[in-house]
Amino acid sequence: MLLTQNQLDAFHRDGFIMVEDLFEPEEMAVALNDMEKIFYGKSYAGYLMELDKTGKVDSVEPTVTNAVAHYGDTEHGRAQFPTGFDSLDRLIENEAYLDVFAQCLGTDDVSYCNAHLFMRSGPTDQRHSEHPWQGYHADHGTNTFLPTSHAIGSFDYVNSGVYLHDVDDDCAPMHVIPGSHRQAADVLLRLGGGIGDIREVPEFAEPVPTSAKVGSALFYSSYLVHAAIPFENKRKQRAFWTLSMARGDTSRWTKLANPWSGPEQQFFQPFWEKTTPRVRSLFGWPELGHAYYTETTLKGIAMRFPNMDLAPYQV
Ligand SMILES: O=C(O)CCC(=O)C(=O)O
Ligand SMILES: [Fe+2]
After folding, report:
1. Could you give the count of Cα atoms lying within 13 Å of 172 in the half-sphere of its Cβ?
2. Fewer CB near the terminus (10 Å): N or C of the chain?
3. What is the pLDDT of residues 175-200, one digit of tens each?
C-alpha cells in the first residue's frame, strides 16, 4: 500500500500524515498485550484492578540507566528496540509501512535511527505541560546534534508512531501544528531554541489532535512542532510502537546512541568545539562546503556549540 500523490503532498505541506490500516487489529492486540507485560508486569486491566484495590500509583515510565542513551528499561522489561518480543520487534518488517517511510523520506536509501515502546499511562502520566500553549517542541534533537534548517526533505528525518489500539480524543492524542516543520528553523532561532508559549508565534496554525484507530501509523517530520496533552480520561493508557528513520546520506549524523545524547555529550561538546572540521567529519559532521551549512544552520550551530569557530564553514 503506497501513499497516493495527494497523501504525499499533504505530508510535505503539513509535515505529517496519518495512514490507516497499515497493521491488522489482531497483530496490534498481541503486540499491546506484550507491551503491557513490559510496562506493568501484567495486563493493563489487571494493573487498574490492583490500582483500585490498593490506590498505589507508581510511575510505569522507563528509566535510563545505560551510559549510551536509549529509551531505557521498565521494572519489568525493555522499552528500547529490540525488546525481545517478536510481536513488537517484527512490526518493523511490515513492507507497506517501510514503503511509506521511503516515500516520506523521498528515497529507498533509508537508515534506522531508533525505535522504542512509547507508553503513556493515564493514572500516572506527567508528560504533558500545565497549560495548552506550553510544551511545544520538535523532536529533531533526539537523533542528531545538528540544528534545524530550511531544507525540508533533505536534513530532517521521519518519526512514526504505530497505534496499538484506538486513540480517541480523551486518550491524550499528540497535538501537532500543521506546516510548522517549514517554520521551525526560523522560529527556534528567533526564540533562542525553545518555544515557551505558542501564543508568541502568530505564524503557527492551530494545533490539531492525532487521534486515530488501531492499526494506523502517524508519520511526521522531525522538524514538526507538537506537544503532549493531558488525558481527559485518566483510566486510559496510550501505547505506541515508535520508529525514527533518516535518509542514508544523512545517516552519519542522524542516528540515536551516538556521543551527542546522554552523558557522553558533556565530553564531546567541548572536544568538538575545539577540534578541526576534518576531525569533526570523522564523527559524522558534514564536510566543509556541504549544502547543510547555510546562514540559518550556522546560527543554530553557534547556539548549540557557542565556543566553536565557525569561520571555515561560512557560506
Ligand atoms: O505523548 C505525546 O503526545 C507527545 C510526547 C512528545 O512529544 C515527546 O515525548 O517528545
Ligand atoms: Fe516530542
Report:
1. 25
2. C
3. 999 999 999 999 999 999 899 999 99
The reported pLDDT for the residue numbered 67 is: 64
In the 3-class helix/strand/coil scheme, how is 129-178 assigned residue by residue? CCCCCCCCECCHHHCCCCCCCCCCCCCCCEEEEEECCCECCCCCCCEECC
Q: Is the CB of 116 under 6 A from ligand 1?
A: no
Residue 224 CA to ligand 2 centre (angstroms): 9
Atom nearest to 173 CA in ligand 1: 3
Is the CB–ligand 1 distance for residue 3 below 6 Å?
no
Closest protein CA for atom 2 of ligand 1: 228
Candidate of 125, 126, 127 to mutate for ligand 1, largest count of ligand atoms within 8 Å of Cβ: 127
Structural domain spans, the chain: 5-250, 265-313
CB-ligand 1 contact for 128 (6 Å cutoff): no
Give backbone dihedrals phi and psi of 270, rounded to 5 degrees, phi first.
-65, -35
Strand 237-247 with 175-176, pairing: unpaired
Give the number of other CB atoms < 10 A from CB of residue 54.
8
Atom of ligand 1 nearest to the CA of 139: 10
Q: Which fold, 5-250?
A: Jelly Rolls (2.60.120)
Nearest atom of ligand 1 to the alpha carbon of 120: 1
Closest ligand to C-alpha of residue 120 is 1
Query: Exposed e or buried b for every residue in 61-70, given b needs 16+ CB within 10 A?
Result: bbeeeeeebb
| Alpha-carbon distances of 7 from 4, 63, 111, 222, 313, rounded to whole Å | 5, 37, 22, 18, 37
Regions of the chain where pLDDT drops below 70: 67-69
Q: Is 174 in the pocket of ligand 1 (CB under 6 A)?
A: yes
